[in-house]
Design a protein that fits this description.
heterodimer; A: about 260 residues; 11 helices; B: alpha/beta; Rossmann fold; 2 domains; six-stranded mixed sheet; 9 strands; about 35% helix; P-loop_NTPase (chain B); ABC_transporter-like_ATP-bd (chain B)
């Protein structure tokens, strides 16, 4: 509990984290608002094909907030100080305070999980408010099951980012790959055109926890998993990365 | 009591340490000396559980670091650098450490006062001078009021007043029965602070004894150091 407390304290005293909070809390609402404005006439006329997606596409995009959170929570430990200050890293302090490495990683992952859930709840509130503000009585009802799917998607994504960064020690690579993957081009989406195995990649499976996939004209957008199996697939990825991260972290010298 | 027993460390094909043994005893300040690359930092990192030994052991009161229940209250350490994220304030840095060790916020203010950093505690660590960063590292080491202090180059970058403060402070800690192990390459400074001296060279102990024993027939500790660590070094004292 103490270690978890300390990790939360570390996260909230890091200025870079506020960027994660800003993106996570506001980007979904902004996208939901833009979506609502574009679709408003169709929705009122009852002919919109995208009603079921309003809000959720924004929430899918807002996952970038927790990607930053997951990456920064680890990369901040390895940020090397200037050479005139001796080139130290915070990780030396962290591990002399919490000597058990699995315990340390669990505490850190716990802090990332708690913060991701809270941030996701804030994002859902801003997103629902934004759609209601613009669509009024025509705003879609947000089902609890799909919103739970969003929370799981955010939390699992944050933990994946966390696990990958433990392996790389540096935030730049995971941050670049994961942000591009969740905003510009989805690699799993491209792969899914070639092989069905791509549906088992964590991000592709993960979005099936809350996206509707009712576009029958395009097979790629068809549902492949049920939301529950989608969650399980992503959870397995998270577990694998976390276990590998614990093993590597346990064996690795801090000086290496 | 710190007990280093036949410590060996290989990294790839490099032999960093080849069988180091020495003790740092309660009530004494032990100076750990050696040229750059001799293996001082590696020894301290293994002692603190940060690096893994290839063989041998480094024990704190008879236990490896990882088995200490709440290490901060047993051993306080300040290694190279500040050990803090540059975007955090000095106070925020000490506060998360205090939380991890179950210590109060008022203890953070106490150690800030002890190391003379109270006025700079609200500034980001990135803006600290080398001396201030050293003081922050010292504050972190003192948070749990430990019986053992392990300090890597504690006086590096301190102004004369800071150096004098460290010297007096460490002497007082030792006199009240605590164990202090410090590495340094400031020979003159070390000679005024330590009781015992361990000198390592190329990953081996070349001298281990009280300050008087290690100086031996040489005029100063510095003379003894160069005699022992030059390429034609003699036998262990």
């Amino acid at each position: 509990m103490r270690a978890l407390n300390a990790e939360l304290s570390k996260l909230f005293s890091l200025p870079g984290i506020w960027l994660a909070f800003l993106i996570g809390a506001l980007a979904p609402a902004v996208i939901a608002a833009l979506d609502s404005i574009v679709e408003k006439e169709d929705i009122i006329a009852g002919v919109s094909t995208r009603l079921a997606e309003i809000g959720y596409s924004g929430l899918g995009f807002g996952v970038q907030g927790v990607i930053i959170l997951g990456v920064l929570s680890v990369s901040s430990e390895y940020l090397t100080e200037s050479s005139e200050s001796g080139g130290g890293q915070q990780i030396t302090t962290s591990l002399t305070v919490v000597p058990s490495r699995p315990h340390f990683l669990m505490a850190k992952a716990g802090a990332v999980t708690v913060t991701s859930i809270l941030l996701c709840m804030v994002a859902m509130m801003t997103t629902v408010s934004a759609t209601h503000l613009i669509l009024g009585e025509y705003a879609p009802a947000f089902e609890a099951s799909r919103l739970i799917g969003v929370v799981c998607y955010w939390t699992f994504t944050a933990l994946l980012a966390f696990g990958i960064t433990v392996l790389t020690k540096n935030g730049i690579i995971p941050l670049t790959v994961l942000i591009i993957n969740s905003s510009v081009i989805s690699f799993s989406f491209l792969l899914s055109k070639i092989t069905k195995l791509a549906f088992y990649l964590p991000d592709r499976a993960g979005i099936e926890m809350f996206m509707s996939f009712n576009d029958e004209s395009n097979a790629i957008f068809n549902r492949f998993h049920t939301p529950f199996t989608a969650g399980l697939v992503m959870l397995v990825w998270v577990a694998v990365f976390f276990i590998v991260a614990v093993i590597v972290f346990h064996r690795r010298d801090v000086a290496a | 009591m710190l007990t280093i027993n036949n410590l060996v460390k290989h990294r790839g094909t490099d032999k960093i340490l080849s069988g180091i043994s020495f003790k740092a005893r309660p009530g004494r300040v032990t100076g750990f000396l050696g040229p750059n690359g001799a293996g001082k930092s590696s020894t301290l990192r293994i002692l603190l559980g940060l690096d893994h030994a290839t063989s041998g052991s480094a024990l704190i009161n008879g236990k490896p670091f990882a088995e200490l229940h709440n290490p901060l209250t047993t051993v306080g350490a300040a290694l190279d650098g500040f050990g803090a994220h540059r975007m955090r304030t000095g106070r925020a840095h000490l506060r998360w450490i205090a939380r991890a060790a179950g210590l109060s916020r008022s203890r953070v203010e106490e150690v800030l006062e002890i190391v003379g950093l109270t006025n700079a505690a609200g500034k980001r660590v990135g803006s600290y001078s080398l001396g201030m960063g050293k003081r922050l590292g010292m504050a972190a080491a003192l948070l749990g009021d430990p019986q053992i202090l392990v300090l890597d180059e504690p006086v590096n970058g301190l102004d004369p007043e800071g150096i004098r403060w460290i010297r007096t402070f460490l002497r007082e800690r030792a006199q009240s029965g605590n164990t202090v192990l410090l590495s340094s390459h400031l020979m003159g400074e070390l000679a005024e602070t330590v009781d015992d001296v361990v000198i390592i060279h190329h990953g081996k102990v070349v001298a281990d004894g009280t300050l008087e024993e290690v100086i031996g027939n040489h005029s100063t500790l510095e003379e003894a150091f160069f005699a022992l660590t030059s390429e034609h070094a003699g036998d262990v004292v």
